[in-house]
Amino acid sequence: MMGDVDRYARILRVLAEHGFVVLDQEVVHHHDRDEVRAAQHRIALEELGTLFIKLGQFVASQSVALPQPYRVELAKLQDDIPPVAADRIEAVIVRSLGAGVGDLFASFDAKPLGSTSIGQVHAARLADGRDVVVKVKKPGVDDLVATDLSILDGLVRRLPPMSASCAPCRPTASCRSSSER
User: Fold this and answer.
1) Is 26 helix (H, G, I), strand (E, B) or coil?
2) Cα 166 to chain center, whole Å?
3) How far apart are CA 151 and CA 103, in angstroms?
4) Cβ atoms < 10 Å from Cβ of 51
5) Residue 46: which H helix or E strand, with range?
6) What is the pLDDT of residue 153?
7) Upper half-sphere CA count for residue 162 (Cβ side, 13 Å)
8) Which pLDDT tens digit goes with each residue over 49-87?
9) How many whole angstroms separate alpha carbon 100 and alpha carbon 84?
């Protein structure tokens, strides 16, 4: 499992690679066109994984005031998530079921039917000829989400006190609750 410090460094590196730098506690980005910045935001969220993709999905679904280029790009996080390589998915299947896809299925399509932030699905055929869909959790998702929630909890604790109108949100309690699931 990646440690919090390593993951925090990776988060900062990915954000910097996609045009963001943290300077004097302010986020500064390059001044590209909105379409380019929006695409870079989405790509950064995809690279950072499950929790960041979920955050992007939430923002996309809740933000009617978000500029159009951002709504378009973040909407791609709903159904256009890059898949994990077939060999890594097969390794998950072997760990979970104790045998490779060649032993378990008469055929297994290495190209997924769909991919989400948490897993992906593959078409397969059983030895008796029945067509099935195999849903596989992406490797490392649980550990990555736990680490990211821990980091998020630490960041939220460092935020200045909230106004009375925001107090019901209790972000620190929400992070703790989510990380304990």
Assistant:
1) strand
2) 26
3) 40
4) 20
5) helix 34-48
6) 85
7) 11
8) 999 999 999 988 887 778 888 888 999 998 878 899 999
9) 17
For the question of whether the overall pTM of this predicted structure is more than 0.90, the answer is: no
Beta strand segments in the chain, E: 20-23, 26-29, 107-108, 114-115, 119-125, 131-137
Maximal C-alpha separation, the chain? 63
Residue with tokens 């994990």: 84
* Number of Cβ within a 10 Å radius of residue 98: 9
Is it the case that residue 47 has pLDDT exceeding 90? yes
132-151: pLDDT as tens digits:
999 999 999 999 999 999 98
pLDDT of residue 133: 97
Phi, psi for 22 (deg, rounded to 5): -100, 125
How long a stretch of residues is the chain? 181
Structural tokens at position 81: 């998530």
Distances (CA, A) of 125 to 86, 131, 136: 17, 4, 15
Q: Return the closest-CA partner of residue 81 out of 115, 38, 43, 44.
A: 115
φ, ψ for residue 108 (rounded to 5)? Answer: -145, 120
- DSSP state letters, 114-160: EE-SSEEEEEEE-TTS-EEEEEEEPTTHHHHHHHHHHHHHHHHHTSP
Taking 90 as the threshold, does the pLDDT of residue 31 lie above it? no
Cα 46 off chain centre by = 6
